[in-house]
């Protein structure tokens, strides 16, 4: 089989590669850059990689015809017919779906979801995404199912980029947790994070939490509590066998995972055990999900 070019678009980075028989080759990871340059950036990646078909995972709402609608972390995009634009420019098949759906599909076929018929995938990064697998297939609903980042945690909470209030993403998106850390430093709280004032990243919060910094640990614990609430809501409705947590912020490790499990165990009405695990594929989950989408579509 000829290579399939697969692209996972995030709010901060774009991950891409060619996939042949389930093996990823010629990987790329570049900054997403300005929203206005997105289509041009994607075209450049596709031409460089030169696959016979293209699969793309995009944040936000993706219509069945490959149109992207108002992704919160891409200001300025209201309705972008991405599939149509790329196919006309390249004259090869292009398939587009939600990025978290693609991560769920990749994990289901190649990673932590192998052998599981029903699962939920959450992706934690600049935004918070969700993908649902029911009876071995992505569940789209009317097209927008799985948007866990926009579950309301507190109706009088902070304003989200989607213009709603109190969304999960407005609490635990990467930018929000670094903003919280910077705020604590400015308040004069005793924390090793003050050494990084003005340049705190999620990775720094993770490192300082594992070193025992109380403020950093509290940020991760609160993040795990809110994520556990959202997962409990998901599980009460869908009753999955497994929940997979992926994305860049999943690297926060055992402090995050143990807190999530504790919160889900405390809140879930059903006392059946639900397996909650981290992604096995990391940055490749979305890429491999795009590959699965393409090979089952052409």
CATH superfamily of the largest domain: ATPase, nucleotide binding domain
Q: What's the main sheet like?
A: 5 strands, mixed
Which stretches are poorly predicted, pLDDT < 50 over at least 5 residues?
Answer: none
Quick one: how many beta strands? 13
Tell me the radius of gyration.
19 Å
Write the layout of secondary structure elements.
Elements: E1 4-9, E2 13-20, E3 23-31, H1 38-49, E4 54-58, E5 61-62, E6 67-69, E7 79-81, H2 82-90, E8 94-98, H3 99-110, E9 119-124, E10 128-134, E11 137-138, H4 169-172, H5 174-186, H6 202-210, H7 214-238, E12 242-246, H8 254-267, E13 275-278, H9 284-295
Parallel strand pairs: 1-4, 4-8, 9-12, 12-13
Antiparallel strand pairs: 1-2, 2-3, 5-6, 6-7, 9-10, 10-11
Helix pairs in contact: 3-9, 5-7, 6-7, 7-8
Summarize the structure.
The chain has helices spanning 38-49, 82-90, 99-110, 169-172, 174-186, 202-210, 214-238, 254-267, 284-295; strands spanning 4-9, 13-20, 23-31, 54-58, 61-62, 67-69, 79-81, 94-98, 119-124, 128-134, 137-138, 242-246, 275-278. The chain has a five-stranded mixed sheet, sandwiched between helices. The chain has a five-stranded mixed sheet with strand order 11-10-9-12-13, sandwiched between helices.
Description:
With 298 residues, this protein is α/β, with parallel strands linked by helices. 37% of the residues lie in helices and 22% in strands. It has helices at 38-49, 82-90, 99-110, 169-172, 174-186, 202-210, 214-238, 254-267, 284-295; strands at 4-9, 13-20, 23-31, 54-58, 61-62, 67-69, 79-81, 94-98, 119-124, 128-134, 137-138, 242-246, 275-278. It has a five-stranded mixed beta sheet, sandwiched between helices. A five-stranded mixed beta sheet has the order 11-10-9-12-13, sandwiched between helices. A three-stranded antiparallel beta sheet has the order 5-6-7. Helix 3 crosses helix 9 and helix 7 packs across helix 8. The radius of gyration is 19 Å and the shape is globular.
């Amino acid at each position: 089989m000829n290579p399939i070019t697969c692209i996972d678009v995030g709010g901060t980075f774009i991950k891409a590669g060619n996939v042949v028989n389930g093996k990823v080759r010629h990987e790329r990871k570049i900054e997403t850059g300005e929203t206005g340059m997105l289509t041009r950036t994607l075209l450049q990646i596709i031409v460089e990689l030169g696959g016979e078909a293209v699969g793309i995972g995009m944040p936000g709402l993706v219509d069945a015809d490959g149109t992207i609608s108002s992704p919160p972390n891409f200001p300025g995009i209201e309705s972008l017919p991405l599939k149509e634009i790329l196919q006309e420019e390249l004259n090869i098949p292009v398939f587009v779906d939600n990025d978290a759906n693609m991560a769920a599909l990749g994990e289901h076929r190649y990673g932590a979801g192998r052998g599981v018929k029903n699962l939920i995938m959450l992706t934690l990064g600049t935004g918070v995404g969700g993908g649902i697998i029911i009876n071995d297939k992505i569940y789209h609903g009317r097209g927008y199912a799985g948007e866990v980042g926009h579950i309301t945690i507190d109706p009088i909470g902070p304003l989200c980029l989607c213009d709603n209030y109190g969304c999960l993403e407005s609490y635990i998106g990467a930018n929000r947790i670094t903003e919280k850390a910077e705020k604590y430093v400015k308040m004069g709280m005793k924390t090793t994070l003050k050494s990084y004032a003005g340049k705190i990243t999620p990775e720094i919060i993770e490192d300082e939490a594992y070193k025992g910094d109380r403020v950093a640990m509290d940020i991760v614990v609160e993040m795990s509590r809110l994520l556990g609430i959202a997962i409990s809501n998901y599980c009460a409705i869908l009753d999955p066998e497994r929940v997979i947590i992926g994305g860049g912020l999943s690297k926060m490790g055992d402090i995050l995972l143990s807190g999530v499990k504790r919160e889900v165990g405390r809140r879930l009405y059903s006392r059946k055990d639900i397996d909650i695990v981290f992604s096995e594929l990391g940055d490749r989950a979305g890429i491999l999900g795009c590959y699965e989408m393409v090979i089952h579509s052409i």
